Amino acid sequence: MGNQTSPMEFLLSDISEVPVLQMPLSFLFLNIYLIALVGNWAIIIIIYRHPLLHTPMYFFIGNLGFLDIFYISTTVPKMLTNSLTQRKSISFVGCVAQLYFYLAMAATESTLLATMAYDRYVAICNPLRYFVIMNGTFCLQLVTSSWLIGIVYSFIHTANTFRLNFCSSNIIDHFFCDIPPLLMISCTDTSINEIVVYGVGGLLVLVCFPLIIFSYVCIIKTILRIPSATGRNKTFSTCVSHLLAVSLFYVTGSFAYFRPASSNPSHQHKINAVFYTILPPMMNPIIYSLRNKELKKAVKKMVSEW
Question: What is the pTM (predicted TM-score) of this model?
């Protein structure tokens, strides 16, 4: 995907242009990274060790935790290395790999969140057939499909991005290799790339997001038919965690990508990137553990066993 007019390496920018903030921010993001790793691994281990959590919902939550470990690891370690060593470079191949895995994880998470919304729809709107519909084989097929969609989505964007020439500059005004800042430094016409970003990215969002909305419209209608307030609150509480995760991921991600690159200032794009690449992997295990009684019981049981 490279060519003779492209540089052998790129130079990445710091997350902040204020030098005095570099060390505090590095310390902050190191802690966020460690919290994300520990939290997601803890979720995976707890679900694996407790048979009562071997249900479709927790199967998807466990897969989301596994995905988030890789998702945050595509950007933060390189950002921390560059910030602490003051060596801002990333090789051309490294940039290709970073963009590919970052996009693959992001698209997979988008699809997996839609799958989890469908799971909640079946559980609440069709509870008597829940375990028949959401059987082990079907759940595995849904997760596998999410990963395959992410892989294909990422390949399209990565191949389309690195067919460009980067002969005017090798300085990426971002803390990782992402599509908008790469388009900004290309000396090739990027109109096709922007069409692909809007087209392919829009297709993914237009499939996943309406599925989530439709699922929750049906869920809310079902919940409103429950006679007791206690029953309504109990049923809806199983969806709150997922709604928070969806909001955090979709709102910031869509805001960043579905704007022309030229109208998205670099500092704003960096801030947006923190919200949709770094915070969700850290917040998801916290959100799911705090809002989920069964998971909290499993945590207490594991702690007592130790």
Answer: 0.88
